[in-house]
Design goal:
acyltransferase; Acyl_CoA_acyltransferase; Lysine N-acyltransferase MbtK; about 190 residues; Acyltransferase_MbtK/IucB-like; acyltransferase activity; alpha+beta
Amino acid sequence: MTTAVHVQTVEGFGTVTVRPVDPEADAPLLHGWVNEERARFWGMAGTTVEQVREIYAHLDSLTTHHGYLVARDGEPVALFQTYDPAADRVGECYEVRPGDIGVHLLVAPGLAPEAGFTGRLLTALVAFALTDRTRIVIEPDAANEKAIARMLRAGFEMGPEVVLPEVDLPEVFIPEKRARLAFLSR
């Protein structure tokens, strides 16, 4: 088990714990999450447990990209990824500033609907992401209206729609993506 890198109690919500993904131990759980229809924008539909393990082992080997398992009161509730936009394809689509950090969030499927859940979860994740950074950049799929609306409610400012270029490396293939940039400053 990996050690928490952020623990925060959110009033009326519970204690949010953020810890690095353990590719070996977490792959079965994450496989179930990323293969749900609702996670189609995550881009990992159709992967096997072994492929999920390999993807997160590769991510774990990088110094610029990080995967985290997020729990509320000890129960896994989200997958959170951070990255240096200057070392990512999004950096080709906007002027990266010193202090920028990119993030991706996948809320776990199967959670009972709870009003305000994602907003309160974001309270802790934004605090974590901005610990030593000044601005968050997100790039949800331009067709993911639900994610875009959620980020607007969280205070993100909409940026332009862009096309993220394809990434085709021996370790990873990521297809081209139409995305909507959004920013949140400290």
